[in-house]
Every structure is written in structure tokens, then in C-alpha cells.
Amino acid sequence: MPYASTNCKKIVIAGVSGSGKTTIGLELAHLLDAEFVDADDFHSPEAIAKMAAGQPLEDEDRVEWLSALGRSLAARDRSTVLACSALKKSYRDRLRELCDGLTFVLLTAETERLRERIEERARGGHFMPSSLLDSQLETLEQGDDMIVIVNVGPPEEVAARVLSGI
Ligand SMILES: Nc1ncnc2c1ncn2[C@@H]1O[C@H](COP(=O)(O)OP(=O)(O)OP(=O)(O)O)[C@@H](O)[C@H]1O
Ligand SMILES: O=C(O)[C@H](O)[C@@H](O)[C@H](O)[C@H](O)CO
Description:
Blueprint: E1 10-14, H1 21-32, E2 35-38, H2 45-52, H3 59-75, E3 80-83, H4 89-98, E4 102-108, H5 111-123, H6 133-139, E5 147-150, H7 155-165
Parallel strand pairs: 1-3, 1-4, 2-3, 4-5
Helix pairs in contact: 1-7, 3-4
D-gluconic acid binds near residues 17, 40, 62, 87 and 128.
């Protein structure tokens, strides 16, 4: 059955590191009774090591990753929320090429709030250093192909705003 005629929703929660993709994506998946997939789980160990060492990923580091994510989304027959940075328009287009009917939501927040959240999370042992935030923001191509939601407030309220926006 073509995707458009089913109730199966495929939503990509995009944004820079620390924008809350995982936090809000999990809440949204709960509201939609959808599966939640974290694109960080699809990065190669080399890509994770690179980021952990403070080096930004480049286009070539993201090629296989995006293909695997697009194929994985297309293969799912349940509603799915994917937390994925999807910083460039070309990355989002690659996902669209592989999976029909994707809705993209961009989470944003003020830079200093993002930095504080990343630093707090890094103290808990997360691999991503806040030194990479500037390159994440430089790489981000915000476009009218995404609904923009400001991630400020209790996560369940932000997820409810996402739900009414999509
Ligand atoms: N609405 C919110 N209110 C308070 N804290 C939040 C909110 N959203 C996210 N956070 C916190 O900010 C940090 C970053 O959030 P999260 O890990 O969800 O971001 P992310 O976009 O998935 O990041 P990354 O891509 O780097 O994995 C976490 O510690 C999370 O608890
Ligand atoms: O495209 C990218 O640069 C990556 O997906 C990053 O966004 C990280 O995976 C994430 O920030 C980890 O915390």
C-alpha cells in the first residue's frame, strides 16, 4: 500500500547537537505510539571517535550513515520518529530520496542554552564535546523544508507543540 494512504507517519527530528532531538523525539514517539530511532546509533565507531576527539564530521563521513538511515526508515511499517541532525538540505534530500513522505522538524534554542546543555550532558559521559557546537551551527542549513520548533520548556510540552505543528 502506498505510504500516503496509510496512517504510518515518519518524522525526522533534526537540529544541531544539544537541540534536544533525542529528548523531544522520545516524547513525540510516545505521543504517536511510534518507534523511536536515534541516528547516533548508526554512526560508525570511527565517526564517533572523530567527534569525541573534537573533529567535525565532513560530508564523506555522513554518506553511508545517511543511506543506512534512509533505508532503515523505508523498511519500517510502523510510525517512526528518527532523531537525526540532518544539518544540510542535501542530507535531508538524500533521506527523502530513500523514504517517501518524511516530515522534518527542526529543533532550535539559543546558542548559550545549547552549549550549557551539551556541557552538562558531557559531564555525564556523553562523547560529544561542546567545542563542536560552532561547527554544527555553521553547517546547519535551515530551510523552508522543515517546521521549526523552539525547544524551550518541559519536553512533553515541546513534543505537544511539535505534534500540533506537523
Ligand atoms: N526541553 C528541555 N528542557 C531541558 N533540558 C533539555 C530539553 N531538551 C533537551 N534537554 C537536555 O539537553 C541535553 C541535550 O539533549 P538531547 O541529548 O536530547 O539533544 P540531541 O539533539 O539529541 O543531541 P545530540 O545530537 O548531540 O545527541 C540533554 O541533557 C537533555 O536532557
Ligand atoms: O551530523 C552530525 O554532525 C552528527 O550527527 C552530530 O550531530 C552528532 O551525531 C551528535 O551531535 C552527537 O551528539
